[in-house]
Specification:
The protein is an alpha+beta fold. Helix content is about 30%, strand content about 25%.
Amino acid sequence: MRNLIALFIALVLASCNQSKETKNTPLNKELLTVADSISQLMTNYHYNPKMLGETDYLKLEKEIQKLAKTVESGEAFIAGFNQLWSDGPFSHVRLAKTEKPAEEMAEFIDSLRVGDQSVSLKWESKTAILAVTTMTGVDTKERVFGAYREIEENKAETLVIDIRNNTGGTFAGIPLIGHLMTEPIDVGMFVSRNWWKNNTEVPNIEDVRALSPWEGWSIKTFWQDVQEQPLTRVRFKPMLPYFDGPVYVLTSKKTASAAEFTVDAMAHLDNVTIIGETTAGEMLSQKMFDLPHDFQLSLPIAEYCSTRIGRIEGKGVEPDIAIDQSAALELATSLINGEELSEAITALQNELDKMEEEPLGGKAIYLFGNMNDWGKKWEASPRLGYKGKGVYETITDLKKGKYEFKIAPMNWEFDFGAKPNQEKVTIGTETSLIKERGSDNLKIELAKDAELFFRLDLSDKKTAILTIEQKK
């Protein structure tokens, strides 16, 4: 009898534990359908199906199935999926809720205008500093064309191209390099699943000699063509006006995708020097596909092989002069001003070593939120000053009301925000933050106008602690 009772208890406990791990709600059934559809899309459209049989991918598929069985919302499934794929075996995989059907999304991207923040042109004497933050946008392409006209009109002697914060996009890199060339250059090829059906080796320039280079500006057309052809030849042509002076290209670990093959193309030119960090190594072409239950998946339909260095995916493009990206512009400026490379690097490295003593390496961070239109009201965005021993502080006045905010650098390469399911921030209480790009907003509610003291403690590298005090 005792044995039967013990067995009954064990079965009940096992059932309880299983119910905690695996849910059988209508939502979880839907998400399992989504997970199965993702696997099928990968099988049907991934640029190299052989990769889907490798251990890392199969392990990730199991994790996604487990996620679908246990999460409590579609939003949590998306967040968990994208987090898993942030360390996935290949790049350019992302899940989202459907904003537009995939077919319409391609047309939307073709006509998208992203705004004037995509391109900026500044001057230091006869040096033009051209910063491009995305390769997407009809207007981005137009602004690059316009920048080169201004560079010619002002008779620039040196050009700095800053793509440290450029994570890729579509075709704005074509004019970015076209105005630096005097003759066409074969820079690479996109490789589809139709190549890997009959080949085991990465292609080279001889495999595309007989092909006409792909030309155009439409991502919709490109996606169609690149899937149909085993190889798509990429050849850049010269554009006027031509700039023939020294060119310094600034890169970082964030420089990715279409920005990477643009950097690699520029590396063919004798007057180009690449300064900064090795790029992200995320050089694939992705396409959107519709999923059941209003989800949409982006997956890679082609990989890119450079005629200069082969595959860029998983490897990146190395700079000619390696230095922390935060010092890349200063180093370029030093070289333009005639300083010796060794002396300039030594001086900057000493400064970088000093900054490393700070948790964020000297990077300025600000309080951004709805109180200052998320940084658009620049004069009302308090900077957190470094006070030593890992602590940053600022004071600001806020009116009675509800606020959402984060702490981040100006370029938003990361932010300190709320952990998932975190409650509101309470004045006088320590709050543990998460440091990642796109974290949840922090929230606070003030019953009356107040002068608040913000203290961010990063002394422990594993944690970020925020304390807000009300000044008397």
